Amino acid sequence: MKLTKQTIIVFLVSLSLISMEIIWSRVFSAEYFYTFAFLVLSISILGLGLGALSVRLSKRLAAKESFGCLLSLTGLLMLVGPPAVLYLQLDFSQLLSNHMMLLNLLAAIVILGSSFFTGGMVISGIFRKSHESMPQLYMGDLIGAALGVVFAVLLMNTIGTDKAALLVAFPVFAASLLSFTNWFRLIPLLLLLSSFVVLPKSSVILKSAKKDRAEVIYSHWDAMARLKVYKYSDDYWGLNIDNAANSPVIAFDGDFDRPDSLKIPFSIPATKLTDRFDNCRFLSLGAGGGGDVLMALQDGATEVHAVEVNPSINKMMTDGFLQEFSGDIYNDDRVRVVSEDARAYVRRFENYFDVIYSLSSNSFAALASGSFALAENYLFTTEAFQDYYKALSGDGYLLMEHQFYVPRMVSEILEALEKEGVKNPKAHIAVYHLPTMRRHLILLAKKPLDDATIATAVHETNAENYAFFRQLYPAADSVKGNRINQIIENGWQEAQLTASTNLSPCNDNRPFTGQLGLMKNFSMERIKKKLMPYEFQGFPLSIVIVLVILAIVTVIVLPLNFLPYLKSGIKFKAAGWLYFFAIGVGFMAVEVILIQQYTLFIGSSSYNIKTV
Fold it and tell me: Which residues are bridge partners to 470 per DSSP?
């Protein structure tokens, strides 16, 4: 079968649009607290469909003479889309309390959908004009889409996400050149040239109005995350991930033989646990900037596994920007550097680690880099805690800290221990509160905990330390009413009756989400106030965002599909509607399930979306 110009154009447009969809998801997920991926994915599909609808309504739009102009316009819209949306400074927490913010969201939807709309017009026009070659055209479409995924990842990992967002329009401009047959070819050439001219300023163009918390001395942006290194002082830097999570990077000279008085202090030390073992095997879940690793080495651990899902962070620590500042600790003979999802890694071990340590392993960065608005993860499911428990040595301990999720995690730990056949799960767990840090800390032991261990495992739980370190479980009589103690003593079902957030245990078939809000907390009074951009207070912000987007689609987009029925001619019958509706629902259902399950094997949603 001869390769036609129309097939090449379809191939190039599909390649460019899919690449843009992935790159834009990465751009916006790094710049907005709640992931923009859900919106980008939805708008891409709707934009393509509306483009096809416009071709159905106007035969002129399907004329091949207009393809060149439409493709040039598509490329232009691809170039201006991300900076235009960032300029709007969307704040999802104000969607229903601020009418201007709702208008900004509508504007963002139009901006994001415009390039998909014009690109969809071209693809649909070619399909309509050359329907006798549909098998070849559709194969070009599928191959272009598949290679578009590869193209997006390669661009982001080689030249950076900010530059990739500008160069992703190149295939569309190439398609525009093929479509023009005269001097009009200068249009895509000039647009392509302009994209190269502004390329050096891409990092400035694709930067939101948010102020950085300190001087940025290094930045890197690839398919996994946007990384920044803040310089807080000469001895203390911070690694920021997707403008959301933060990991400390501590200056170290490589000297582990210093006296105790000169050792580096840590706010949540594992020293008293590590010291219990002659040859401590230490696992850091989400090692980040290496603070956990430095602490373990300083405490005398003989084997440290630094597990971090982002390979760029590990590269910065082993032979990159952070190597010298951190004392080259990642090249210490005792350290095993692992670029892998922590959950997948820990499943390989049984009765092995003496201390498993995790500080905010699933932080706001998971919300930013997740594939959907609900930012699912498998680090905090019931099965995950079963894996952690099995990976502990006979006398091992798990220390896990988080800002918001501990109540639900406690429910999961109790369920996990029951599934593992532990006779008295309550005896294996202790929970602490660090009010000055606004953190909670879980201590889980392979063997039942004694009172002395509970009272001294991290900081001593006494009146002197009460201001910054308190024991929530086992609880003293004066604080037995705290939520954690209620969950452990009475079960999460009873505690849920008065709780403002979701306490129910998650599992691998219903992954953990950072959105814990409940619809019972929804009220117009709370909407009128400025909502917090997270749900630990119980307001179901994520549900509200999804409902607002669905309402916009229902009110504006769906009625447009019935416009062809106002014209004379052949009408699409109900059977046809049902046929394609079923295909769409089936395809998306399979895709979502596969993405969820691939997370268990691959880990990062940034890559499992692309794989699926």
Answer: 433
**Helical spans, DSSP H, in 516-573:** 524-528, 541-552, 558-560
Let me know: does 70 contact 121? Beta carbons within 8 Å. Answer: yes
DSSP secondary-structure letter at 276?
A: T
CB contact at 8 A, 442 and 425: no
Q: In one letter, which amino acid is 390?
A: K
In sequence order, the β-bridge partners of residue 432 are 441, 471
Whole-number Å distance between alpha carbons of 522 and 106: 23
Count CB-CB contacts under 10 A for residue 589: 10
Residue 48: both structure tokens together = 């393509």
Which residues touch 395 (CB under 8 Å, ≥6 apart)? 276, 277, 354, 446, 447
pLDDT (tens digit per residue) in 339-398:
988 888 999 999 999 999 998 776 444 443 333 334 567 888 999 999 999 999 999 999
Q: How far apart are the C-alpha atoms of 27 and 14, rounded to whole Å?
A: 20
Collapsed DSSP state (helix, strand, coil) of residue 236: strand
Phi, psi of 207 (to 5 degrees): -130, 130
134, 124 contact by CB (below 8 A): no
Degrees (nearest 5) of the Cα angle 248, 252, 255? 145
Beta strands 215-221 and 226-231 are antiparallel
**pTM (predicted TM-score):** 0.87
Using DSSP, state whether 469 is helix, strand or coil. coil
Angstrom distance (rounded) from CA 23 to CA 189: 23
